[in-house]
Predict the 3D structure of the following.
Amino acid sequence: MDAGITRISADIVQVQIPLPYALNLVNCYLLCGENGWTLLDTGLNTPAGRNQWQKAMQALDIRPHDIEKIVLTHMHPDHFGLAGWWQRQTEQSLPVYLPAGERAQAQVFYDRENTPRYHQWMLNCGMQHETVQHIEAALASTRDLTQPHPVSEQYLRADTIVRLGQRNFRAIHAPGHSDGQLIFYDEADRLLLSGDHVLMRITPNIGSWPHTLPDPLGRYLRSLRKLAALDVRLALPGHKALIHDWRGRINELLAHHDGRLQDTRAALAAGAETVYEVSAHLFKLDRLTPHEWRFAMAESLAHLHCLRTRERAACDCRGLMRWRAL
C-alpha cells in the first residue's frame, strides 16, 4: 500500500493523515464490516488530508458510499476536522457519531463568539496582549480547517457496546485530554482503540481550558490507573506508534506527570507566579509556535490546578491568576 496506509489486521487499516504542525500526523482507522466500513477519526480538512484519504480509498477499492459511519473519539480539530467533508461525499447521509460528553465542549470551542472568553483567559494566565493576538490567529486558522462541520451528529455514551466494522467494542470514558473522550475496547481480541489517551513517545496534552471541567490532570491520572487493569494485547492510538506494552506505557505516563508536578511546584518556589511564567520554566517557549504556546500554557495550568487539589499550591484567581507554593 501507499505510505501512511497500513493494514493492522484483516479488517483494520490505519490511515495516517498529514497535519500542518510539529505533530505532523494523526492516525485514523478504517474497520471493515458486513455493511461497509467504519471510519474512526478523520484528520484536518487540508488538501494534503483529503489527498491522503483519496489514496487510501483507491488502495482499498472503497467508494464514499462504502463508508457506513464515522465515529469520533473526541472533538479536537485533528480528529473532527474532515467529518463534515466526508458527510458531504455521501450527500449528507453519512452518520457521524461523537461522544455525548463532547457535544457541549465542541459547541463552546467552535463558536467564534467565544473568542473574547479565550482572549481574557490567556490574559489572566499572564500572557502579553501581542502574544495573545498571535495565538488567536493560529486558533482561527485551525478552526477554519474543520469546515464544513457535519450537518447532523449522533451521540455515543460510555459503558455501551458499539459496533465498529465487524467487531463489538465497549465504549470507555477516558477524560483528561478531552473531557468526554471515548476509547473502544474489543475484549475478545484484547484490542483497544485508544484515541489520544495513551500515546507512545509523546505525552498527550492534558490542558485546563476555559471550556474544560475542573482538574483535568487529576481525572486523567485516575483514569490511567483504572485502565491499567485492562488486558490489552495491542492499542491503536491517535498519534505515533502502536502500543504493545499497555501497562508499561501507562506507568511511564504516570511517572512523567509525577515529575512534571514536582517541576511545577519548583517553578513556584523559584518565584514564578503567573501561569505563563510557570510554562516558561516547564517548556522551551522560544522553540514553540503560537499554535503550541497555548497547549504549553493550558498544560501548565492543569498541573497547577492538580497541585491546588492536593493542597500543594494556592491561587488568587480573581482576574490575573497569581499562584504560590504551599
In short: Residues 246-269 form the longest helix (24 residues). The chain has one domain: 5-325.
